[in-house]
Amino acid sequence: MKKIVPDPPVSPPQDAAQCEALSLDRAATERALDYYLHDHKPPRHVDQATYAIPDSVNLEAALAQASDLLRCAGASASEAGNGLSGHSRSLVLSCMHLVELAKAYVDKSLDGVTTH
Fold first, then answer.
1. Into how many domains does the chain fold?
2. Higher pLDDT, 47 or 112
3. What is the pTM of this model?
4. Which of these, 51, 65, 71, 75, has the minimum number of CB atoms within 10 Å of its CB?
């Protein structure tokens, strides 16, 4: 009787080293797929802040620190804008003006704080 499905080809038994190499290749493939196909970034919690301001900071100290930070941000934007031209320069300089406006409000609030 003739078989419909032929016998599989006779292959020599694989040695242990070849099996180990194949399993290492398979493991490397799975690691690569996991790395590129899955997002491995840890979830960021909303309640975690990058900077923690201690509760002991009073209003005057907080406003003074905010004023200094805004001054630095304005200076950085000004320097960055000087090296640009066109639309990019306009965007950076408009950010600088917004920072200066925010600094003016903080300074005005700082003037109104009564010192003890």
1. 1
2. 112
3. 0.52
4. 51
